[in-house]
Write a structure and sequence with these properties.
- This protein is an alpha+beta fold and 183 residues long.
- It has a domain of 113 residues.
- Helices cover 53% and strands 13% of the residues.
- The protein contains four helices and four strands; from the N terminus they run H-E-E-H-H-E-E-H.
- The protein has a four-stranded antiparallel β-sheet with strand order 1-2-3-4.
- A hairpin with a 3-residue loop joins strand 1 and strand 2.
- Helix 1 runs parallel beside helix 3.
- The chain is globular, with a radius of gyration of 19 Å.
- The two termini are 23 Å apart.
Length: 183
């Protein structure tokens, strides 16, 4: 894997960073703590929805724009592979596990970089939050429904999906800022 240029000096050891960590400790732990908070928030909100809603039930929050609902997704984003017959559950769990290991490795190596670390911690929390659902229920619990009247609906999503999305946006922003600084 190539070295991330423009991000300060690093030593080659896992979890050792040339950046200041505040306490002199490993910069990995604050990011793992943040990811854990995201996982707990995701699972807590899903539990609330599972206890309060029947499948398909909708509660308007902002009439015509935003509802809470309970739906399940056996696929990935936008229900990709939802009707694939069951094998996709383990496929997506495998992808998330591999991605989580890679993210933890990157956080250990570059954890002193705040925006980069934040983006990866958010992605990690979302990946693990949805893996917990796949392992516990065989599908992902979604409950946020954004729509325009009854004409247009964005696919339902959850806190984990939101964390992955925000993390990806921040990761792109981090890279754009890094490229801009290197000019």
């Amino acid at each position: 894997m190539s070295k991330r240029h423009g991000r300060g000096s690093r030593s080659g050891g896992l979890g050792v960073s040339g950046g200041h960590t505040g306490s002199g400790g490993n910069p990995l732990w604050p990011w793992l703590a943040l990811a854990l908070i995201g996982i707990l928030l995701d699972q807590f909100t899903k539990l609330l929805v599972l206890r309060q809603f029947k499948l398909g039930e909708r509660l308007p929050v902002i009439e015509g724009w935003f509802d809470l609902t309970l739906v399940y997704n056996t696929g990935a984003a936008f229900s990709f592979l939802a009707g694939a017959g069951g094998w996709q559950r383990w496929f997506f769990v495998g992808i998330a596990v591999v991605a989580s290991i890679a993210i933890i490795w990157m956080l250990a190596k570059h954890g002193s970089q705040k925006l980069f670390g934040l983006s990866l911690a958010l992605i990690l929390s979302g990946a693990i939050g949805n893996v917990i659902d796949r392992l516990a229920y065989g599908k992902v619990v979604d409950f946020v429904l954004v729509h325009w009247g009854e004409r247009w609906f964005f696919p339902a999503f959850n806190v984990a999906d939101s964390a992955i999305t925000v993390g990806a946006i921040l990761l792109i922003l981090d890279e754009l800022l890094r490229v801009r600084r290197s000019r």
